[in-house]
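Table S7 (text form). Paired inputs.
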Amino acid sequence: MPNRPLILDRVLTHGEQHANHIYLTQPVGGGQVVDYTWAQVLDQSRRMGAHLQSRGFEPGARIAMLSKNCAHFIMAELAIWMAGYTTVAIFPTETADTVRFVLDHSGASLLFVGKLDTWPQQRPGVPAGLPCIALPLAPKTDFETWDAIVARTPPLAGRPTRAGDDLAMLLYTSGSTGTPKGVMTSFDALTQAAEGIVADIRSRVGQNTENRMISYLPLAHSFERSWVEAGTLMDGRTRLYFAETLDTFIQDLQRARPTLFISVPRLWLKFQQGVFAKMPPAKLDRLLGIPLLGKLVAAKIRKGLGLDQVIAAASGSAPIPPDLIRWYRRIGLALYEGYGMTEDSSYSHASTEQHHAPGYVGVPMAGVQVRISPEGEILIKSPGRLAGYYRQPELTAESFTADGFFRTGDLGERRADGLLKITGRAKELFKTAKGKYVAPAPLENSLNAHPMVEMSLVSGVGQPAAYAYVLLAEQLRPRLAEPAVRAEVQAAMEDLLAAINREQPDYSQLCMIVVAREPWSIENGLLTPTMKIRRNRIEAAVAPELDRWYAAGSRVLWQ
């Protein structure tokens, strides 16, 4: 037995102490759901764990999962852990090429195939001869099914344990700037991060409450894996719901009525834009300003979003515009920003009731040390730190300082009270022809705060000045053929450009805003699976048009 209980030990204890408590609620179509108690979750996981062991894989073998979020994703993870192996989760939206890269690079011995939307396109990425098992919600395949295996296999007996330095998972980064890297996370690191996450959440919602969460951000990503899966596995008193489809998401939220809710900036923005589509922002602003009526309107908005029971809400994975945080707080949702990365199990900084400010990502969480290098880089020492990059010892060595701080690659500054502000990415800085570095992140945050803008990219390497490339809000795009709407957007973008430039020194002023013609999406490769922009791909896509844009000399261009 390890000296301290690890996350798997805690899970087994929940199975004993909360055997009949519902842990997972899975929609299965037509408004129907299947509930799984802790006893049922562990029974199925033990049976699959016994099956995996029977296949004779070497200790620590990598077992891969390609699936959208579902109850059996978590059961499969527990089975892999109990069998003595390491999990490799692949983003369910990845192309066949990336699926093959991750399977090959990790040396996966088996693949679980689960709930997927594009399996026929991904299937060619699975090497011939790799054993595969189909989870219950998988597309039709010839693979042996989870249900058939657990029905015939006796469960693992006893209390399976793992060592703290065993690898729990390989987390492949989403590759926003290049080839995904395999981040090795040990059971000890995952356990410490999950303990800290539970302590943070419990400090906000109370020590004895029974909470509800909904899992819909990719479980292959560290943010969801740590804060939702590992947090609920560690806590044992939170019921976890899953979303069925994008089209049913609001109904899924209404079913779950979460008390805890985390999301990414793009989705927080989409929720807001959905509200604005029903009521113009100016009218809503007036109503919210009326004392009694404003409270009623705010409550109705929260209920319509399915967030009326939320006690604690958080945004992470990318910067969120400060004005968006203010708007949610105005409608009565205490939205806080946090900061973390795959390399620290998403356990780094969080805003609190005592320490928060729009534009800041919070203060260090328990056990986290932080400092700013002379070059302005944020250096972190977290209990959830990675064990290294898989099969990349040179990269591992160069990613740490001599005294063990991780080089995040993010630039930042700290206030006297410990609040941290992210000012950009070191690798995203670029020089224009004026010879000075421009940090795109602050400019993009200012652009994204405008209600007409959904996302933006600022670039201009070697050009006379920086430019902004913006994707308009979803509800605006279908109406751009209307002359009045187009004229309104044109005027708004000109005003936005002028307002931003008034706050910038000469060398980082924007010479133009270019309005994107086509949406940026995960499907067309311009967004990562967690909906961050793939900067290199967008820049490459517009490179042939740059000369024309700069020659036009216009303040606002339509691609």
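Next pair, protein 2 of 2.
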Amino acid sequence: MDNRIANLARGHWPFILVLAAYWLSVICLVVYSMQLTEGNLIYALDDSYIHMSMAKNAAVHGVWGVTRYGFSSSTSSPLWTLLLAINYVLFGVNNLSPLLLNLFFASLTVLLSYRYLKQNINSPFTVFLILLAAVFAAPLPALTLVGMEHILHLYLSLGFLILAVKNVINENYRIDKSFRLLFACSALLAMVRYEGLFIIFMICAVLLVRRKRIHAVLLGAAGLMPVLFYGLWSMANGWYFFPNSLLLKAQLPNSSHTGLLEELGRGAIRVLHSEKCCLFLLIAALLLIIVHSIKKPRTNDSAKYALVIYSGSLLLHLQFASTGWFFRYEAYLIYLGIIIISITVKEYLTWQHINSIVNDKFLHKAAFTCLFIFLCYPYIIRSTSSLWGAPKASRNIYDQQYQMGLFLRQYFEYKACALNDIGAATYLADIQLVDLFGLGSLESARLKLNNNFTTSEIHNLTYQKHVQVAVVYDSWFRHETKAGIPQEWIRVGRWRIPENVICGDDTIAFYAVEPSEAESLKRNLKQFRSLLPMDVQHIEENR
């Protein structure tokens, strides 16, 4: 038995070491972040708590919404919210479920990546370096502490791409077991994030080029079906076809024909200018496609099709979706790019080739080393920034949104409150929500999408909903051209947090929407001040 374990460890040491490095990093991040948050497990984004709120209401009250008072289409990842809801039904509402799910899917991602790399690369050390680079450049440890669906999306994207390439290159035109599995993956991928449709679209396009029309149609239908069902369900409940988060955050071009033609491609170019990690991967992928077209590799065309699918998906994402906001949106593109490009480079480049490139001359070696460092630098910065920033982001959420949720739970339970960050507040407190950003309130989203979100409309909306308190970022309204804080509101106090790395502003303001509530709100803030973390500054308004 001991010999078997030893042989297994020797045979699969790259996977074991990378998985151990990932788990150790997550443990360190969690322990450090809990030290910063007074022993509480706090996720690094407020959006994580939107999923948790919806899952809690689905599990406990049978309501798909950020509050138990009605339906809301506030998630662009129905599958992740559903997985959390199932966990809450089985084990009760808890804070651990997002962390444990991410640990599970990240481990599966490392295993799947290792098997894929091992099939294509003979050198265990090379496999180890590539896998380690992908895990920390994505970055999986920080995404685990975020507590959202991005690791599940990455896992499904990788598995889907591997299966799709196999189906593309084979000459079997029948609907076999492998394609049925691909069919199921397509539906799951679209359910976990709408960006999954980019990869599905590219694979369908390649299948059409390969004259597998039936396969392309079925695969596209599988990806669109969950989107269609969810959209019709949302519309049946009076909401939009697409989730509010998608409508309010997507980078859509101007709807006019002229605007569409002018903007098509510009969005991707603008993002590439700032996202060097994506830019380098795209350049590498396109160069490898050209090289492959000129000189056939030692193996089949799977590498070429993987590169084409990846490049197209990357460009579609950069054109129509978001990047950044704590590394999460483009994480799957970074991870897939490192894996796919590394495998393809191995088709052409060996250590003998590198030696022949640099020769024995010092200048050649120095130039090659500088080029390598230059290309790796953005990914090193990305990895170190995520490891440094994740615990600090958790502290920010704990100091601001989490305390806001505790305050509302203590003094405004069951009452109408206006917010612009809704995750932790709705997870911790049972409030009747008016979301001024629009993720959790249809009225605000409709006003914004119709360009009618004005100061007077904010006043009318909060008045109609009998809102008593508003907790918002002043800066968000100062930057609006038409929407400002209504004059009738009375600012009673503010909380300011130090070293902000993730919150929309370092200061939140508390407003009495009804002037008669000002003294009561002021008194509540004074009472709660002793419960605030030591580093949160309470600023009382002098009136």
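The CA atoms of residues 297 and 348 lie 7 Å apart.
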